[in-house]
Design brief:
By secondary structure, this protein is α+β, with helices and mostly antiparallel strands. It has a single domain, classed as Jelly Rolls. The chain is built from four helices and 13 strands. A hairpin with a 5-residue loop joins β1 and β2. The radius of gyration is 18 Å and the shape is globular.
Amino acid sequence: MTGVLANPAPAPPVWFTELFAHRRWIRRARPFPHVYARDVFVAEFYQRLADELARVRSERPEAFDPVADNYSAVGLGLDQLRDGPLALFTTPEWHDLIAGVAGVSASGDIEGSVHHHPPGGIAGWPHNDLAPAWFGGTAPGPGEVRMADPEVDLKTGARAPGVGAREMARSVAVMFYLGNPGWQVGDGGETALFADIAGNDPVPALIVPPLDNSLVLFECTPRSWHTFAGNNKAARNSVVMWLHRPMEDVSRRWGGEGIARW
């Protein structure tokens, strides 16, 4: 897996590296820099991930809430999935791998959920994911990850008096596709990437298929425009997550340009 760590981390443990099928992750420059990979995990571990998602969807459908207004997906936070194989996505090892591949110095703060789009989902709107996110307490220490604090509103930072919070910004977006067996061209539900969003109906420059055991990741910048393409004939499932960095780092780099305030 290529990429240069902004702050080099120790080599990952053997148990972690053995989960991956290969190191053929592709770095692409257009329509904006991103990394794409197929067959991310070995077959046995991928199947465990897919089976766990199917189990949770079957046993706890009521736990999945709408992701956003006017958006077809429902989701369940990764903070509620930390007792099974999906917990991999909340480990320090995964955090450091993604930060290294993206070439971004990330804070250890993680936000994310599993998304489920029922058949016939509508297309989303192009957005760049360069958005604020509020986390509670002090910053994570070395080798530590931290999920959002339920006492702090993730989007606004609203909280009770005396509750500490830190304003962070999304730094890397990751979409890992699973539980979509037999997907073929024409089945819909892809992730659309845009070179620009001028006009009333911008056209995607690239479509990423929701193939099982594949992923796309990219640094969140003012130009990392993407969306769910919709028109999926069958349900589409994915893990969607973000790494973070201090808001002042984003403001210093881009001067506030493109920050998507909620």
